[in-house]
Amino acid sequence: MAIDLENSRMTDLNGIGQPELLVSSALHLMSHYSASAGQVAPCLKLASVIERHLRALAGHGDLNPVLRATCQQLSEQWAAVVDDAMPRPPRQSLFERLVRSH
Asked: Could you list the mean pLDDT of each consecutive 10-residue stretch along the chain, which spans 102 residues?
């Protein structure tokens, strides 16, 4: 099942009143991410959407405090997944740094 993250109504999570919908969506997205784990590179966009869902749940006032704390912790873990998957700029050699500084 393909998930259209560009046109998803869930990409804007501000003002979502039903935490159950966010929980359901986050679980679905995590399952999809897990199912596609065998790919060469992890899907950065999907991991980012998961992190945003969890962050929104962590800040949702109608959620049980234990569930909010769990979502906060998971949000931080997914943020690390996103950060690790971000492309890094190539390291410059000492020569390149010296030439650039002059």
From this structure: 44 63 90 77 86 94 92 95 83 78 67
- Taking the CA of residue 48 as centre, how many other CA atoms within 13 Å lie in the half-sphere pointing to its CB? 11
Distances from the Cα of 46 to the Cαs of 3, 61, 66, in angstroms?
9, 25, 25
What's the distance, Cα to Cα, between the start and end of the chain in Å? 54
| Cα–Cα distance, 67 to 75 (Å, whole number) | 12
Contacts of 21 (CB under 8 A, 6+ apart): none
Cα-based angle 85, 56, 4 (whole degrees, multiple of 5): 60
